[in-house]
């Protein structure tokens, strides 16, 4: 009997060890490579290529086992933009004790499409922003397996960022901003930051204590998140976080992009081969760790009161 119990206990331990959630480099490479492939034709809004990208993200959300958002019947948040159909892709993990409080992870899945001239015609947008969407999918898998989120987590791939934030506009107009405790927007994390490996920056750092909370959660690790070192670029206002920040949400962008010296930015040469996928995997792990106290409801960042 005793022996049997011990066996059972050790099997239980083994089983638990097997399901410990991880963010694997293999998964990061698989998702990143798919999103940035030539087949996606640069993921321009209203194109067939972005439709393929949407289908891929929807399939990933389904495999992970995310729920639908609000009263949607699938992962697509569809809307008309200048008379043409467009969609965000949204998946949800319902919170255990605070389901009415939301934490959002977002990135944009659209990019610049194709160019007519030159040898390389596809704007692959491997860094901009397939890297961010890869992070959102990897985080969804991680938090689903962790199965401990007290707050509801919403995972969003926005469309139309490159055209002026269509997707994030529609999303922000259709959510109660008071229920959104924080938004982690992830933009271009595929290259090393100006501080090299294991580091990233947070835009609009001084506008809430979001960044300070993230730094606290990374205190005992080898990761460092810094305030945005490119204030002259106004990055806080230039990505999808801005729409929700304007409504008071502590909504910030996490990035590693060296805005003064990123050679492939908005060029067809923004390819997977130019990314540091080891570092990118570590950055995604750091985002997961840094969000912990917000996900479990012990920290709530202050609201953005001044844009
Ligand atoms: Zn971008």
UniProtKB/TrEMBL annotation:
One of its GO terms (biological process) is proteolysis. It comes from the Bacteria. Keywords: Hydrolase, Signal. It holds the Pfam family Peptidase_M28. InterPro entries: M28_fam (IPR045175), Peptidase_M28 (IPR007484). GO terms for molecular function: metalloexopeptidase activity. Residues 88-288 form the Peptidase M28 domain. Residues 1-17 form the signal peptide. PANTHER family: METALLOPEPTIDASE M28 FAMILY MEMBER, PEPTIDASE M28 DOMAIN-CONTAINING PROTEIN. This is M20/M25/M40 family metallo-hydrolase. It comes from Flavobacterium silvisoli.
């Amino acid at each position: 009997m005793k022996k049997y119990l011990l066996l059972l206990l050790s099997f239980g331990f083994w089983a638990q060890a097997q399901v410990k959630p991880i963010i694997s480099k293999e998964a990061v490479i698989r998702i990143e490579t798919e999103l940035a492939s030539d087949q996606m034709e640069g993921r321009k809004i209203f194109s067939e290529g972005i439709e393929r990208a949407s289908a891929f993200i929807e399939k990933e959300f389904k495999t992970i086992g995310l729920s639908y958002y609000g009263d949607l019947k699938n992962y697509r948040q569809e809307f008309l933009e200048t008379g043409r159909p467009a969609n965000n892709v949204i998946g949800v993990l319902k919170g255990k004790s605070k389901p009415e409080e939301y934490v959002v992870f977002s990135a944009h899945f659209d990019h610049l499409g194709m160019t007519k001239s030159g040898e390389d015609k596809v704007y692959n947008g491997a860094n901009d922003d397939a890297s961010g969407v890869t992070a959102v999918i990897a985080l969804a898998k991680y938090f689903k397996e962790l199965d401990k989120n007290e707050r509801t987590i919403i995972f969003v791939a926005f469309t139309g960022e490159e055209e002026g934030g269509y997707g994030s506009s529609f999303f922000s107009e259709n959510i109660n901003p008071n229920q959104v405790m924080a938004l982690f927007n992830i933009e271009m994390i595929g290259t090393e930051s100006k501080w090299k490996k294991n580091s990233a920056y947070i835009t609009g750092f001084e506008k809430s204590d979001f960044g300070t909370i993230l730094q606290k959660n990374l205190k005992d690790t080898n990761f460092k998140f810094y305030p945005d070192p490119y204030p002259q670029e106004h990055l806080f206002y230039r990505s999808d976080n801005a729409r929700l920040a304007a409504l008071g949400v502590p909504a910030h962008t996490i990035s590693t992009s060296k805005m003064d010296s990123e050679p492939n930015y908005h060029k067809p040469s923004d390819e997977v081969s130019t990314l540091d996928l080891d570092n990118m995997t570590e950055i995604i792990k750091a985002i997961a760790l840094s969000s912990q106290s917000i996900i479990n409801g012990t920290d709530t960042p202050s609201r953005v009161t001044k844009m």
